[in-house]
């Protein structure tokens, strides 16, 4: 899978090396392999959990949607998107966050998609500074729900994004 991943230096701004998750999707065999690897990683992480530790998958716009849907279908549980502010209809909960290349961002989740009985598995493509993933944790908790774990395909360890998470060991990479 790693062999088909493209990295673009200085994109979207100088000093940022952009890891292009979409380049995997151009290769069906590698995409299928990634799907299998992710399912296996989740199963392994929760092997000793007993009852299902999560009852929904939350995907972060947009690259978290692809594997989020795969996991949702595999486990037969709902998929819930987190999108940039202003993209979701209805009543939403909002949180602000920063990334390695943008200081001011906001994202939302639809309030009626999540409740206090929800136990979420959050998925995104990349953990860099931790701002986006931390925002997702905060949104889930604002809605009265719990985060069972998070999953990322790639992690840029040198940026220490795990340190922003309340429970760094809950992040599957």
Can you walk me through this structure?
This protein is of the alpha/beta class and 173 residues long. The chain has a single domain, classed as Rossmann fold (3-Layer(aba) Sandwich), CATH 3.40.50.2020. It is 27% helix and 30% strand. The protein contains four helices and nine strands; from the N terminus they run E-E-H-H-E-H-E-E-E-E-H-E-E. The strands form two sheets. Strands 5-6-4-3-7-8-9 form a seven-stranded mixed sheet, sandwiched between helices. A two-stranded antiparallel ribbon has the order 1-2. The longest helix has 18 residues, at 28-45. The chain is globular, with a radius of gyration of 16 Å.
| CATH class identity | Alpha Beta
Give the overall average pLDDT.
94
**Biggest beta sheet summary:** 7 strands, mixed
Low-confidence stretches: none
Report strand %: 25-35%
How far is it from the N-terminal to the C-terminal residue, by CA?
Answer: 14 Å
Number of domains: 1
Structural class: alpha/beta
Order of helices and strands: EEHHEHEEEEHEE
CATH architectural grouping: 3-Layer(aba) Sandwich
Instruction: State the strand order across the main sheet.
Output: 5-6-4-3-7-8-9
Rg of Cα set:
16 Å
Number of helical elements: 4
CATH fold node name: Rossmann fold
Helix content: 25-40%
Shape, per Cα inertia axes: globular
| Count of DSSP strands | 9
């Amino acid at each position: 899978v790693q062999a088909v991943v493209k990295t673009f230096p200085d994109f979207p701004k100088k000093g940022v090396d952009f890891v292009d998750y979409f380049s995997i999707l151009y290769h069906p065999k590698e995409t299928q392999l990634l799907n299998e690897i992710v399912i296996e990683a989740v199963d392994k992480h929760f092997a000793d959990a007993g009852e299902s530790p999560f009852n929904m998958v939350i995907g972060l716009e947009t690259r978290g949607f692809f594997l989020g849907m795969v996991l949702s279908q595999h486990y037969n549980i709902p998929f819930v998107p987190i999108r940039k502010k202003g993209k979701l209809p209805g009543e939403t909960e909002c949180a602000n966050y920063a990334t390695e290349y943008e200081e001011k961002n906001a994202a939302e989740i639809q309030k009626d998609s999540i409740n206090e009985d929800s136990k979420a598995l959050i998925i995104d493509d990349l953990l860099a500074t931790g701002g986006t993933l931390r925002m997702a944790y905060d949104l889930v908790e604002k809605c009265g729900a719990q985060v069972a774990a998070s999953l990322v395909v790639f992690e840029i360890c040198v940026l220490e994004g795990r340190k922003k998470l309340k429970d760094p060991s809950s992040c599957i990479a």
